[in-house]
Amino acid sequence: MFGSRILSNSVRQISSNTSSASASASSSTSSATATHHLITLIRSPIGLPSSSRLTLEALGLFRLRQAVLHPYGETTAGRILRVKELVHVSNVTEAEGKKLAARSRSQGSGIEYSGRVYGGGKGIYQAQI
């Protein structure tokens, strides 16, 4: 009883999400039709079977937030379905996909210098400069 209600609600939500997504995708790519998949690795394959890691390597995904561009095809679709929980897929034109895939992550080590290090002697203070 409750299972069928939950299932029908989830089907309605999925169909409304896909219709709104297709409407927004068609408005953004109105001049050309989408011909490629832009695949972005969202979750890590650590702890998963080696077949999942090998599938990601076959897609060309090695780092988190890395995006690759693949043309439509049966092989690519099968690979995406095998790792669908780990990736985000967008349908784009080739030109849009190249521009989006070329975006790189911000550079930097993530370390901010905060001044004197513990146990590092007296050092130079702002008043001495």
TrEMBL record:
<dbReference type="InterPro" id="IPR036919">
    <property type="entry name" value="Ribo_uL30_ferredoxin-like_sf"/>
</dbReference>
<keyword id="KW-0687">Ribonucleoprotein</keyword>
<feature type="domain" description="Large ribosomal subunit protein uL30-like ferredoxin-like fold">
    <location>
        <begin position="38"/>
        <end position="87"/>
    </location>
</feature>
<dbReference type="GO" id="GO:0005840">
    <property type="term" value="C:ribosome"/>
</dbReference>
<comment type="similarity">
    <text>Belongs to the universal ribosomal protein uL30 family.</text>
</comment>
<dbReference type="InterPro" id="IPR016082">
    <property type="entry name" value="Ribosomal_uL30_ferredoxin-like"/>
</dbReference>
<dbReference type="InterPro" id="IPR005996">
    <property type="entry name" value="Ribosomal_uL30_bac-type"/>
</dbReference>
<keyword id="KW-0689">Ribosomal protein</keyword>
<protein>
    <recommendedName>
        <fullName>Large ribosomal subunit protein uL30m</fullName>
    </recommendedName>
</protein>
<dbReference type="Pfam" id="PF00327">
    <property type="entry name" value="Ribosomal_L30"/>
</dbReference>
